[in-house]
Amino acid sequence: MNSSKVIGDKTLPPMAPYSFLETVKTLSTSDAPWFYQRIARSEIGTVFRLQLFPFGFGPDVVIAGDPKLAQSVLRNSTNLKPAFIYKSVIRGPTLFTAEGGRWHHARKATAPAFSSKHIQKMNVTVLEQVTKWIQEDLVPNYVEKEASFDIASVLLRQVLKGISVAGFEYEMSDDECEEFLLEWEIALRETLARSHNPITKIVSPFTSVGRRFNLAVDRNCEFAKKVLEHYRSLECPNDGTIISMIANNANYESDEERIGDIMVFYLAGHDTTAFSLAWTLLELAKNQSEQTKLRSALRNTPREEWKNLVELRCVLKEGLRLHPVVARGSGRVLSDDINTDKYFLAKGSIIAIPFLVVHRNKEYMDKPDEFIPSRWINPSDDLSSAYMPFALGRRNCVGQSLAYSELFICLATLVVDYEFSVFDEGWWTFFFDVEACWCEVDCQEGLT
Hints:
Blueprint lengths: L4 E3 L2 E3 L7 H8 L4 H9 L6 E4 L10 E4 L2 H9 L7 H4 L13 H11 L5 H28 L5 E2 H18 L5 H23 L1 H6 L4 H26 L8 H6 L7 H32 L1 H12 L10 H13 L7 E4 L4 E2 L4 E2 L4 E4 L1 H5 L21 H5 L14 H18 E7 L2 E4 L3 E4 L2 E6 L3
Helix pairs in contact: 6-7, 6-17, 7-12, 8-10, 10-12, 12-14, 12-17, 13-17
């Protein structure tokens, strides 16, 4: 039953049939993105309200799983991010959380690092890192021993180290890598718990969990400070890297601001890319015909032309569509009222745009839950509009060009010479990204 609320001549989106406590409890679990999906595929539809504030206090929270509405909200530069959701995992304003002058100078400072000229330079480093991993780890420990491996866990660490070298000229040790991942997970889990539950937000700072959260944030800030100091100690640092753009920009008021943005790029860049690559490889392992088709296309195309290869682009887009790792998507606070064909959304409403729901909207594509790379050969306007893995508008992902480039290089370099098959599909979990857990694959030299 559609429970749309009518106020005068204005119709609000229907309210999902869950209480405040039921909603908060579910959104605090790994079921969160699928909770949105189940509601969106019910008779309620893809635009609905959630009870996220007790006793009706607080603004309306609207889930926008309709691509056209999502695009309208994201492309409006006056719609800002909800500060209470984004601000606590890194202390102080950052490129990710700030608005106004602070955001503008940080975006302007770092954007040149992702120009085609500098991406090409970083590509060389990324390829060197991938090749080194294949030669020193993948082949001797898994291919030659015919051993399966946890694809997400392995790629997470390799991508983190690769980004550190390519973007920050800093080689992470194994111990630094493990500590970074541990502290990041602790900090992010607590941040999300606080954003979904107002009671947790009030109580947590006075608990052992809250104190451990503060320690995790401090430790990762100390790591970022070390990266900055290391760059400044280099005799001949490279131009155009992410760290050079941050360290040498005079518009930053302090090193604390620089450290905050260094953390943003480390945090936003490693797990999203790693899990995107892991999910895509897992889909290819499950769909051997698609893997064979891609390998054949790669082998019949000069390496320097891989970036223009239709088969590679289609596989990557389909992987990102089917498994948007930031499945819960992005959020905005409306700066003005919106009237859609069906509903009225009031100024001040919080609009959550779950990319999983948008990317799998049945009204915009056929068989949305299946891995079909060929759907991208001649995509319809509807299909193209329902694809936004890096968000849209001025607050889209500034590093998406590097992410795409890393995915192209890593996927092509692995698939061209090695064949992947599923040993154990494992399971997925979610707390910021949709993560593949203990999804083990076998790898052997490609025969086709």
